[in-house]
Amino acid sequence: MSLRPQPMADPISEASLAPGGRPGFRPAAPHPREQERICSLHSLQVLDSNHEKRYDDLTRLVADIFDVPICLVSLVDEDRQWFKAHCGLDARETGRDIAFCAHALHEERFFVVNDASKDERFYDNALVTGPPHVRFYAGAVLRDSSGLPLGTLCLIDHKPRQLSEAQLDRLERCAALVENELIQRDALLAERARATLQASIDPITGYSVRRRYLQKLSSWLDEYASDQTLQVILIKVQGSERWRKQKGSDFVDGVLQSLSTQLNENFDSNEMLKGRLNHDTLMVLLPQKQAVSGMRWSRFVDQPWLLHLSATVRPTLLICSASLVPGATTAHELIEILEEELHNASDWAPLQKDIQVADLTSSLQLRIQLNNRFAQALRDNELSVHIQPMFKCGTLALSGQEVLLRWKEQDRWVTPYQMLRIASHAGLTEELDIWVLRQACALLSQWQGSDEEFSTVQLPLSLNIAATRLLEVDYVDAMRRVLRLYRIKGQQLQLDISGTEDFMESPESLVAAMKVLISEGISFCIDRFGPENDSLRLLSLLPAKSVKLHPRWIAQLQTDPRQARLLKAWTAALHVLGLEAIAVGVEHARQQQVLEDLGFDQVQGFAFGQPVPPTDSYQEWLTNIKTAIKG
């Protein structure tokens, strides 16, 4: 039998009925400070959070104390009531329009309904007429630290009840425990926010640290989209590690602090997006209207505290600027491209008065275009391979040849380093590795077919590969398939592996992977062995035949008289380990005798042979190489 009262005798038009289907029924009105209340609730970051044991335990305890089947911690959002804890009820939320707790928001302490089936406000409420069949409801208001109501700790029973004043007081004390948890959560979140902000700001310059800068840069690029051109300024303290060792971290930090002050004074600080990318580099992004062209960068080192230093201990700055139109790349990709171009600029930017200045606009635009073009170029075979010879020191007899990747775009050769970075950005590193492998094996197959004596030549063709790739079963299987396809023996390939420093602590997996391929005849050379991975222990464990010392070590022979002694010690150590020492990046033929005296076994570089496209015949290629050496 329905508990709903019979309709009045006088007919009431349907248009006058309120949302409950009867005269006068309304959901609870919004709180007078509704927007503030909602903002406070959301700031707690508790809505839709996972179950937390302390809240669940508390509702079970309260349900036992008051002997009710249901106890809830209910938080009233804009359109729903959401249950942080719900003892005796499976639902996690209900609509706000039928929520008893929404009415409680208007009360000072409690909201109590002794028998909902006889209450004019609730007798036909869906929570009364259907599950959970509410009859009794008592809610103690939960408030934030400023007193705004957020929801209730409420009791629900399937039968009518009444609570005494003592019981209501007890319910209020229980609600205070929940309030304390919420307020503590609020305080914890505020403290975390403060700590996060402090961790996101560099205390020396006041600029955002890298992680925070990337987040803000993403928002900036989205905001500006392609509406206008932006300016980028990068400032790097060259040789910062040397300065840290010689003069301490405070010296380098002082230089960066001075640079940040100069940037703030020369540009509108409020319109700049300022970041400290790492220990030695600052980056700012600013609108086009803050012109960078014509800037007198020398003022950045015209600081009294720097000028009093002698020229030998005065830091050199690398300052690069560029213009860009947002929308062509993501923030993460943009930072990586800029850092790569900044690194490259240190080799070609002119030096004047302790400053190298470079405009990276054209390089940046080309790199962004290349990122978008690379996948198509790879699949359309627009890339090519060149071959560079290696020679024995002293006799200059040919000792090997290395496959180098080449790509010419817009009449400009893209460097191999740039291509590897672009491939990584595009997720095409694996595809590129296999493409180079196929090109090398196709060339070996062609040379075998054109020269009967080629198979007797014991000079493997060298390919560059990252050490981590050797641990990938797919790559090893692909290599075996390609060798079988072109009928190439493993002895005809050598892998020049880079990135071995990643295995400094645990080289076992790399050693095992190398031995698998060695069993198939493939040999190994450790590539770009230098300051970052100079571990004799690691070299003693890796089953390689030779080591290519980093080109930077060879270049330092021109500027550092101590470098010769260091290189001689390294070549001697390599020989003790049974490894040949290869000097790469040799740009002057007059270095040949010096390198031989230092103990190098092989040389490779523009001074003896530039990378050239392969010829159809191996003998023809050999003739060209010998002619070039004689010339």
UniProtKB/TrEMBL annotation:
<feature type="domain" description="EAL">
    <location>
        <begin position="367"/>
        <end position="625"/>
    </location>
</feature>
<dbReference type="InterPro" id="IPR003018">
    <property type="entry name" value="GAF"/>
</dbReference>
<dbReference type="InterPro" id="IPR035919">
    <property type="entry name" value="EAL_sf"/>
</dbReference>
<feature type="compositionally biased region" description="Low complexity">
    <location>
        <begin position="18"/>
        <end position="28"/>
    </location>
</feature>
<dbReference type="InterPro" id="IPR050706">
    <property type="entry name" value="Cyclic-di-GMP_PDE-like"/>
</dbReference>
<dbReference type="InterPro" id="IPR000160">
    <property type="entry name" value="GGDEF_dom"/>
</dbReference>
<protein>
    <submittedName>
        <fullName>EAL domain-containing protein</fullName>
    </submittedName>
</protein>
<dbReference type="Pfam" id="PF00563">
    <property type="entry name" value="EAL"/>
</dbReference>
<dbReference type="InterPro" id="IPR001633">
    <property type="entry name" value="EAL_dom"/>
</dbReference>
<dbReference type="Pfam" id="PF01590">
    <property type="entry name" value="GAF"/>
</dbReference>
<dbReference type="InterPro" id="IPR043128">
    <property type="entry name" value="Rev_trsase/Diguanyl_cyclase"/>
</dbReference>
<feature type="region of interest" description="Disordered">
    <location>
        <begin position="1"/>
        <end position="32"/>
    </location>
</feature>
<dbReference type="Pfam" id="PF00990">
    <property type="entry name" value="GGDEF"/>
</dbReference>
<dbReference type="InterPro" id="IPR029787">
    <property type="entry name" value="Nucleotide_cyclase"/>
</dbReference>
<dbReference type="GO" id="GO:0071111">
    <property type="term" value="F:cyclic-guanylate-specific phosphodiesterase activity"/>
</dbReference>
<dbReference type="InterPro" id="IPR029016">
    <property type="entry name" value="GAF-like_dom_sf"/>
</dbReference>
